[in-house]
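Aim 2 progress. For Podocan, the working sequence is reproduced below.
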Amino acid sequence: MDQRRGLLELLCLVLLGWTLLRAQAEPDGDPDDAHGRVENVEQKMSCPENCSCTEEGAVDCNGASLNEFPQELLSEQTRQLSLQNNQITEVTLEHLSRLLLLETLNLQNNRLTTQGLDDEGFHILEKLSYLYLANNKLTAAPRHLPPSLVSADFAANQLTKIYPNTFGQKPALKSVYLHNNKLTDAGLPENMFNGSDNLEILIMSSNFLRYVPKSLPTALYRLHLKNNKLEKIPAGAFDNLSHLRELYLQNNFLSNDGVDNKTFSRLNSMEYLDLSNNNLTMVPLGLPRNIVLLHLEKNYIQSIAVNALTPIRNLEYLLLHNNHLRSRSIHPAAFQGLKRLHTVHMYNNLLERVPRGLPRRAKTLMLLHNHISEIGRNDLITLYTLTELNLSYNRLTSAKLHREAFRKLRILETLDLSGNKLQALPLGLPKSLRVLKAKDNQMTEVPEGALLGMSSLREIYLTNNHLKLNSIYQGAWQELSALTTLDLSANMLSHVPPDLPESLEFLHLQNNRISSVSASAFLNTPNIKGIFLRFNRLSVHSVSEESFSHLSKLQVLDIGHGNISPNRGRGEEEEDEDLPYDEEEEKHS
Ligand SMILES: *[C@@H]1O[C@H](CO)[C@@H](O)[C@H](O)[C@H]1NC(C)=O
Ligand SMILES: *[C@@H]1O[C@H](CO)[C@@H](O)[C@H](O)[C@H]1NC(C)=O
Ligand SMILES: *[C@@H]1O[C@H](CO)[C@@H](O)[C@H](O)[C@H]1NC(C)=O
Ligand SMILES: *[C@@H]1O[C@H](CO)[C@@H](O)[C@H](O)[C@H]1NC(C)=O
Ligand SMILES: *[C@@H]1O[C@H](CO)[C@@H](O)[C@H](O)[C@H]1NC(C)=O
Ligand SMILES: *[C@@H]1O[C@H](CO)[C@@H](O)[C@H](O)[C@H]1NC(C)=O
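Predicted structure tokens for this construct:
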């Protein structure tokens, strides 16, 4: 019994946590249900059919199959009225006129149209603080909402019109949700929040705005305008927003002509700025110093000027992927002094070299999918704090990768060199590596000493190269005392490698030319959990049964059908040539 109670309590906690999380969740996502929940205590007093009511004035008709406002039996003492998830089409002055104590009205997800919502209705509700009308069919907002309003949610309607007194003259107003509507600049009043100086949250994403609304209240700390048609930010539009912490401008048409070096310069509290997916060709000048996370990805950025980023002293994350950056158009001092900058994403650009002067405290550097063909001796010399370097899908060749290029990267843990044109596994890789990926190259060789001293290496991936057993130096794997995963699939191996380390747990050898597995192949790998040998040249007779019998931890032994198939008559060589290469492998060019 105790155990069951414990479980129940845990479940309640989980549910509570979930509810809290939902209540705080990004309103752009799913605004449903978070608001005005009421207790489910049945009372004997009058209560509309299909609803539950409490003595404290909460009436819950959530999802009660109502087609009409439940006027009858609704107590004048009602403070919280939950009518969400019904099919109500009309709310009139008469409906509301008795509910003078109403504080929360939740009408989300009904069938209300502007015609069905009495314009004068709300004005008389002098205590109304929370009004939820998301997911209806409103085309215009009510002309007058009461001055007591604290939060209003009109998301996911078809609004084209807001009136001066919809949100104006509301000194208590803190949050307004208007995302997913059809608002244009012409549909907004001159000074939408005139007399509503305490507004903190304004969400107007996914509308048709071309301009930032004028005269926004100075208390704002969250402003979302993503998915609009912004081309230009009018001069001074953000000048008074010294409390703004979070500004979403992604998915608009902002170009460098639409912003200038003063547009953002007064936003002294701003920590999070998202300008991704716009039409910028350079990093804008005048960004404020307290930004921590800066999204500039998916623009057409070609260059970074010397003083564009350096004033942002608190910058930690810089996202510049999917742009048109070339190394030579990034000023060598562009990152100077950015002591907190630890994560830089520059993948999918046009970089030919690792840019000079990258931030000295960088921990994660994503340079994949560029055109880097060369790494010189000193290209990485300042990056001694780097723990993750991703250089996959560039144009590196062994000849142009300097042997000493990695010498300063003493704490690097993850290195990805996949998808280059390396002919051999590079020498001089950091001994600190835990994960090394070099799949999809043209490697014919693991040269003597390439893996020497890598006692932390846990995973190595060399899939899809041209490695043969005798082109891997002897003892290469044996010294890797922490190695758990060795992936040599899609190479040209003729046998299971002889010198596997004791720590090994997963061995991928599929798609090779292995024709037999000897009884002693796995004698030194007692910890192995998975062996993958599919698509080789094995036949029933060439695999010794004793090979695996002592492996007490083995969970997966995948020999596949390969040539051990019922219709072996076709001849082994022939069938082998038809075998697909690792199909799950994404093919990059
Ligand atoms: C109560 O719910 C039932 C279906 O659950 C519905 O048929 C009935 O019309 C509802 N009553 C009112 C007053 O809407
Ligand atoms: C703002 O409200 C004041 C009254 O508080 C009024 O005098 C003024 O005309 C309003 N301004 C706009 C632009 O609506
Ligand atoms: C900023 O505040 C000043 C002084 O209150 C005011 O004159 C100006 O119009 C405001 N600008 C904006 C864009 O709201
Ligand atoms: C902003 O740009 C103007 C002209 O483009 C320039 O005169 C001014 O010095 C710049 N201000 C700052 C703070 O960079
Ligand atoms: C933004 O860039 C796209 C693609 O280059 C272009 O088609 C569009 O005209 C640009 N829009 C503006 C407003 O500059
Ligand atoms: C490098 O980046 C690619 C793409 O995000 C990812 O698939 C790969 O796992 C990364 N490499 C490492 C070692 O994390």
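Residues 42-184 form a domain with the Leucine-rich repeat, LRR (right-handed beta-alpha superhelix) fold (CATH 3.80.10.10). This observation will guide construct design in the next reporting period.
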